[in-house]
Design a protein that fits this description.
Strand order of the largest sheet: 8-7-6-5-4-3-10-9
CATH superfamily: Dihydropteroate synthase-like
Distance between the termini: 19 Å
Number of strands: 10
CATH topology: TIM Barrel
Structural class: alpha/beta
Strand content: 15-25%
CATH architecture: Alpha-Beta Barrel
Number of helices: 10
Number of domains: 1
């Protein structure tokens, strides 16, 4: 097996269970919101949310990542109380109806819905803001004692793509400094189970996204004790590049949209760079790639 396929296992504790992941982890995206960029409006009823969660697991997702607020460029965040009122019933539903071993992450940047979701049965907090939008988030995560996904961005989603938020002397140097500062704060609070997400398409230009992808291995090597998560699925950095291709690639592959092919391609590059978790809308293709590349390694 080629050396780049040597996956670095990592362990975590979820609701008292110690789990070791021995090959790349797939996080299936469940957007229960009417305005997400990719699948907004598809899963807005409890029955639709539950059915899609089951579909994601059947397609090979290791983790379900549930969110009720869109963070696409230009989006407005919800009030934390309103977000909680939407999120918590769905967490309870999934916890009750999915298999007991199913792993549930919640995508929120506020401490109130984070705390209530974990109380309802969530296992992981996925925070796109890296603690920037709520000063109580880090202390709340420390109290909850759950794994925390620390993402990079600048500014609220409504303004993150403005020029002032996409200026970096060097994207990797900036991310190293950002994560180092945040990790120091979290470690001082006793939060040790932290996964990193460099935030593709959050406060980054198209060129910066590809600079980040092609140098992702540098970031991985700098933080060997913090599993790297990449979220590239169907993002604009794919569709903007593919829009220049004519005729569209989908004409040759009518059952697989261009962006899914692009997602799979970039995910393989991310694996080669050392990422350990992949956040995707459609797990089946990514699961196929992982099964092909890591067929001799058990998942857990």
């Amino acid at each position: 097996m080629d050396s780049w396929l040597n996956f670095s296992p990592f362990s975590t504790t979820l609701r008292g269970r110690s789990i070791t992941f021995r090959r790349p982890v797939i996080m299936g995206i469940l957007n229960a919101t009417p305005d997400s960029f990719y699948d907004g409006g598809r899963y807005t009823t409890p029955s639709a949310v539950l059915a899609h969660a089951r579909q994601l697991l059947a397609q090979g997702a290791d983790i379900i990542d549930l969110g009720v607020v869109s963070s696409r460029p230009g989006a407005q965040l919800l009030d934390p109380q309103e977000e909680s009122s939407r999120l918590v019933p769905l967490v309870r539903l999934l916890r009750q109806e999915l298999p007991s071993h199913a792993i549930l992450s919640v995508d929120t940047c506020y401490s109130l819905p984070a705390a209530k979701a974990v109380e309802a049965g969530a296992d992981i907090i996925n925070d796109i803001s890296g603690g920037q939008f709520d000063p109580d988030m880090f202390a709340t995560v420390a109290h909850l004692k759950v794994p925390y996904i620390l993402m990079h961005t600048r500014g609220l989603p409504s303004v993150m793509q403005q020029a002032a938020n996409t200026q970096y002397h060097d994207i990797i140097t900036h991310l190293i400094a950002y994560f180092s500062q945040k990790l120091d704060h979290l470690y001082r609070l006793g939060v040790n189970d932290v996964w990193l997400d460099p935030g593709f398409c959050f406060a980054k230009t198209l060129d910066q996204n590809y600079q980040l992808l092609f140098r992702l291995d540098q970031l991985v090597r700098h933080f060997p004790d913090n599993p790297m998560l990449t979220a590239l699925s169907n993002k604009s950095m794919i569709t903007k590049r593919l829009s220049a291709v004519h005729p569209p690639m989908a004409a040759s592959f009518p059952t697989v949209p261009d962006s899914e092919i692009g997602t799979l391609t970039l995910n393989v590059l991310a694996l080669r760079a050392g990422t350990r978790l992949l956040r995707v809308h459609t797990p089946s293709l990514t699961r196929l790639a992982i099964d092909l590349l890591y067929q001799n390694v058990s998942s857990q």
